[in-house]
Design goal:
By secondary structure, this protein is α/β, with parallel strands linked by helices. It has eleven helices and five strands; from the N terminus they run E-H-E-H-E-H-E-H-E-H-H-H-H-H-H-H. The chain starts with 5 loop residues before the first strand and ends with a helix.
């Protein structure tokens, strides 16, 4: 008797990425893409309807982030496994993804080789994170929390999203549209970031955001 296929849901706001992933995953005899979503509300509905074993989700989407989706779904459906598939540097977001409840993290540039391995690993009860992330987490465990505060450690998930978008040259109006939140809400986030990073004004905030964004780019 054939074993039922592992049901996988894809959540990404780029249709071409979802199509490419679906083709890759459906080639596996024991995998089946049971649904695709381009927004987090759409994903919530599909998860409740088809109850996939694995959800492959991007972090940055319009409206609520992938991290928020993971937290919400894990609260309601703790047995659903999440794998983050993102263009963002794993060393920046992996710990946040793990705290949200994700069992794995794959960079989009590595997806062809690693996303299938990640799915198999988490379905066997394991975690799929890179050696660099595992080493970083082990170092934090050994050294404790005495490291100096940084952008990554002091900002909330949403604040870091706003900070990144500022660094990429987005205006507050564009950030409002990208994140599907009110213009005033973006200003509140900017004010909180400014206070947490001890910055004098919005100009200094934008300057530091651009510098930080540039520092994260591959050399």
């Amino acid at each position: 008797m054939m074993q039922p296929k592992i049901k996988i849901l894809l959540v990404d706001d780029h249709p071409l990425v979802r199509e490419w992933l679906a083709n890759l995953i459906n080639e596996e005899p024991d995998f089946e893409v049971s649904g695709q979503a381009g927004t987090t509300p759409e994903a919530m509905g599909l998860i409740a309807m088809c109850m996939p074993q694995v959800v492959v989700v991007d972090i940055s989407m319009e409206g609520a982030s992938g991290l928020a989706l993971i937290k919400d779904v894990k609260a309601a459906h703790p047995k659903v496994n999440f794998i983050v598939l993102s263009m963002h540097d794993e060393l920046i977001y992996a710990e946040r993804a793990m705290r949200a409840g994700a069992a794995g993290y794959v960079m989009k540039r590595d997806a062809t080789d690693k996303v299938l391995s990640a799915i198999r690993t988490v379905m066997q009860g394991g975690l799929y994170y890179s050696n660099a992330v595992n080493a970083k987490l082990a170092q934090k465990l050994v050294q404790g929390t005495g490291e100096p505060p940084t952008v990554i450690t002091v900002l909330s998930d949403r604040e870091l999203e706003v900070f990144q978008l500022l660094g990429r040259g987005y205006t507050t109006r564009q950030i409002s549209e990208q994140l599907n939140v009110g213009f005033k809400t973006v200003h509140v986030y900017c004010s909180r970031i400014k206070d947490k990073l001890s910055l004098a004004n919005i100009n200094e905030l934008v300057f530091q955001a651009v510098r930080w964004h540039e520092s994260q780019q591959p050399r």
